[in-house]
Structure formats: structure tokens, C-alpha cells
Design brief:
Length: 593
Amino acid sequence: MVENEMVWDLTQLLKSTDVVSIRQELESMVSEGERIREEYHGHLERLDAENLLKFLERKDAYILKFEGVRKYCRLMYSADTTDNVAKQLNDAVLKASTKVSQALAFIDIELGRLLAEKPQLVDSSLLAEYQHYLQRILKRVPHMLSEPEERLIIVKDRNGIDAWEKLQIDWLSTRTFEIEIDGEKRIVPYGRIIGFYESQDRNLRRKANQIVYENLGRDKIIWASALRAVCEDHMQMCKLRKYETPMTQSLIDNDVNQQTIDSLMKTIEKNVNLYRKYLSLKAKLMNLPKLANYDVVAPLLKAGEKDFSWREAQALVVEAYQGFDEEIGSWVTEMFYKKHLDGKMRKGKESGAFCASWLAGKSAYVLQTFNGKMGDVYTLAHELGHAIHAYLSSRAQKPSNCEIGSCIAETGSTFGELLLTEMLLAKAETKEEKQVILAHVLDGFGMAAFQVSARVLFERSMYDATERGEFLDGEKVAKLWVMARDRIYGDSVDWMVVMEWEWTMKPHYYIANYRFYNYPYVFAQLFVFALYRIYKEEGKEFAPKLKRLLAAGSSRSPHDLALELGFDIVKETFWEKGIQQAREFIKMLERTL
Ligand SMILES: [Zn+2]
């Protein structure tokens, strides 16, 4: 019975689950995409406001019309990648989607040209609902090159930075490591050995870290060559595309401005001592004089952790959201009784968890593997927070305004985790239970807000060095990493010497055309902690504000969204609110000692 409750019902996404009719629908998705191309390719540049509105609405209607079939095929495969029908349908939807994106690739380019010619369209009252969507396209226009140049860049990237990125991934995933476990020597791949970082056995954690980084450091020439190529290519492209700084492109992508990110990072740097204080508290909880690098996110030894059944988890999460807002609570309940969650453990199921929004159904689907641990209840609360974001934004916005950027995308989810924290703390019976809950929240906060900040400082310093014409070899990069890391951690953690090679395995630094990916994590974390602090100050009055923010989707920039609620994210005082909330949690933890 309960087993069955943990399996989602995807049939709601479709009229018929018959494979032949699904294939037919995918075919009509492709042919309708091609019809849009025939009608508009080469003509977008000449549209007036009225016809542009018609086009955008047509595009949005097209997204909604075929969303169900696309989601069905993708989600069915995520739930069981070994199922033969799922494999075929996943392959079919990928092929069809590629055809559609090829057919519709002209849209962004031609819309860019149209807006470059007639920027006044952005302010047309007819297009009010699309204003921010169009503003964002217009912002990219000055950085677009001619069509032959853009085509040339795609070709050179294929064997250029794309190849360096691939080398890093392939090299890392094919490394093997020799480790002794229970007196027995074993050769394990990278993906396996990193699992030992979270072991309860401290000695095993230390050994795994030592072996991995000692080995990765030996290949410093490979890592540094790849990274240097990525950095220098980015600098060249910034010049060609006329980006002011190496970070400009990422600021445009994330819809934020430089001052906001500067204030955010200043707040973090001013408060490193708070994080260091938490790390020393954690050392006390683990009966250690000081944490070593392999203890920072390790589980607490005093396991005050309880197990939860699916129904208990459901009741807790519903209660947490209900206590914040009735309507949100009822939508969370609806996710369960409409069977939009897949929590069952299953061979072939994708690892990790996600929430896929279903705009046409004004709802969402959530996948996770529920093992009854406290972390699983947190994941459930997190993904349901994303679902609430989808419930609100799909009711208020056009599909074009539901592409929520990474600075804002974690608002509902992380807020939900904090609501759950409140609930769990209220129900905790022993101080050990409270310690486990608080350490879980503060570990997560510390990683997202402070550990990631070290990566922000590191990435900046690499581009500064490149700009000064310095040569980035392995030793130089390692030095920059250690400097950035120490600015955050000071001497609160004992780092093994080999940890200077930690940067070698982070794929993000190597991903082509994806520079400065990291500050959105810091933003998202501190943003939600600040909102939660304000909620604690304002009480019930805050709920409608948060709902307005979530309902806005991507129709306004994060800056404007916050301003509408009365907060200015350009100012450090806003970000300090987030720090205050972390300080509260640390005080609670201190009281349990
Ligand atoms: Zn999330």
C-alpha cells in the first residue's frame, strides 16, 4: 500500500500512454516547430509590437502544447533507466527535441536583431508581460557577433575549449586508486573512492582524501593546461564580444549587477569568523581539538539521528508548509494525493533528486530515492519547495517568464528546508537530536555560502593573474587556490598539504562558456536566510510577500523582485540579515553543549 503511494502517476501528462500515439505526438511536435520556422524565419526582424506579441504567444502556446509528452518520456526514463519502453521513448524525445531546437534556433538571433533595430519595442504597452524577457535579449545584443563569426566560434570550440572540458571529465573519471580497506588492498575508480569522504570512520576519510589528491596532483600538467586554455579562451572571447570584465557575461546570464555581487561577497568576507566559530563548535561535537579538512562535512559521531517512514515524512513536510501558509500547505498535500512524487527505491532509477515543473498542468513532479533518513526528509521538503514555486509562477506567468535563473531558483526550496528545520527542532526530544538537525543545516549553509565563496575568490584571482600576463602552471594555480581558501577558513581547519590540488577535480572551472557559475549558490543561500530572518521578524505578514516573489517567476530581475518587497539587495544591510539568521542557528547549537 505505502509502496504504491511512493510511485508517481505520469499518465496525467498525456491523453494516451500508447507508445504509437506518443511517437505520433512527438512527430507533430517536430512538424509544428518546423511550421513556426517556415512562417517566421527571416521575418521576425520586421515585426511590429502587435505581431511580435502574436509570435511570442504562439511560441508559448507551442511550449505548453507539447510539454506533457516531453515530460512523460523524460520522467519515465529517470524513474527507470533500464526499462526498454522508457529507453526508446527517451531516445525518441531527445531526437525530436534536437530537431525542434535546430528549427527554432533562429528565434533568439532574429529577436536580438529586431530589438537592436527597434529597442522601443521593449517598452510597448502591448508587450508589457514580455518586457523583462525582451530586456534580457536586448542586453545580449551588443555582445553578439556576425553570423559567420558566430558559426566560426562554434566550429573552433568543438576542438578547442569543448575538448579541454572533455579531457578533464574523461581523465578524472578514468583514474583508479589503490586503497586498503579492512586489511585488503582494493583498486577503485574515482566515483567510488569519493564515497569514503562521508564515512563514519575518520581514518578512512583521511586516507581516501590523501590518496585521491596525491594522485591528482601528479597530473598537474594536464589539469593546468586545460584550465589555462579555458581561462585564456574566455579572456579572448570577452575582448571580442566586448564584455567589460570576465564576469560580465555571467552577470547578464544571472540577471544581476556587479554592485549586488560585490555587496554579497563583502558581507561574506566580513563574516568569515562566524563560519570559523561554527567549525570550532563542530570540532567540539566530534570530540576533536580542531577539524581536519576531511571532517568539515563529515557526519557527527554522536548519531542522534532518527529514521522516518514515508508517511511520517509526508506529515512533517505538510505540517511545516501548512504552518507558514494554508494555500501552500494544501498544494503540498495535493502533490501527494495526485501522486506527483516518486520516492521509491528502484534499480535503474536516476540518482539524486529533482523537481520538474509542469506548467501546462500548473503543477510539478518530484523524483527522489527515499531511504527514511533525515536527509531524505530534507530533500523532500526541498523539492516540494520547487514545486510550490512552479505552482505559483505557472498560475501567474507566461511560459517565457518561467525560466527562473539560479539566483532565485532555490528560494522556495531552501525556504522550505528552513520551515522543516523549525518543525524538527520543535519536535526534537533530546539535545543530540537538536545537534544533528542544526549541524545538518549549518553544514549546508557553510558549504553554499562560505566554501563556494572560496571558489568565487579563486576564480577571480585566476582571471586577474591571466590579465596581468602571468603563466598559470600547476603550482601557480595551487597557490591561488590555497590563498582563496585561507581567506575563508583562516586557521580554523587543518588542511593536508595535498589539498592544494582540490581545484583539479571541480568540473565547473573547466566547463566551456560557463565562467563564474559559483556566486549564484552563495547568493541563493544568503538570500533565503535573509528572507527567513525577515519572516521571523514580521511573522504571518511575510507569507503573501514570499508568494508574490515566487509567483513573479523570471518576469523581473532579482533586484526588482526584492525591491518590490522592500529590500535592497545592492546594500550589505540586506545580506547581513542572512548572516543574522545563521548566527541564530549557531547560538541554538551552542546552547545544546
Ligand atoms: Zn534545488
